[in-house]
Amino acid sequence: MKTTEIIAVRPDKLDEDCVLVTLKHYPRSTDKLRELKPRLVTYKGHNQHWYVLPSYQPTPASITRFLSRIVNGREFRHIQLHLEKLKKIQANARATSQTVTN
User: Fold this and answer.
1) Is the pLDDT assigned to residue 45 strictly greater than 90?
2) Cis (ω within 30 of 0) for the bond into 54?
3) 3-class DSSP state of 102
4) How far, CA to CA in Å, does 87 sit from each of 3, 12, 57?
5) What does the pLDDT look like over 8-32, one tens digit per residue?
6) Bridge partners (DSSP) listed for residue 43
7) Residue 71 C-beta-side C-alpha neighbours within 13 Å
8) Do residues 85 and 77 lie in contact, with contact meaning Cβ atoms separated by under 8 Å?
9) The pTM is what?
10) Nearest to 8 by CA among 95, 89, 58, 82
11) Following CA atoms 7, 12, 13, 16 in sequence, which dihedral angle do they give, to the nearest 10 degrees?
12) Is-contact 21 6, C-beta < 8 A?
């Protein structure tokens, strides 16, 4: 069984609808024999549309389901509340920077 750890979830600065999720993928027990190390991967997207950064390759279906659960599922509500708070902070920063430049 593959183990995955959520490292970071944050809104994308350029696209308001997108979220950046960084996951740490641990190798399976059979892969440990080959001395594979855990790897960090950042995904960008929303709903069912997720891509691996920086290559923008589509994610596998199993990862897409997991990422969608992080953003929409009830079991990750604490992460969603934190994400909403960060989005409000970004929106306020954008609004204040626009009023300063105007």
Assistant:
1) yes
2) yes
3) coil
4) 29, 9, 25
5) 999 988 888 899 999 999 887 766 6
6) 21, 52
7) 22
8) no
9) 0.81
10) 82
11) -150
12) yes
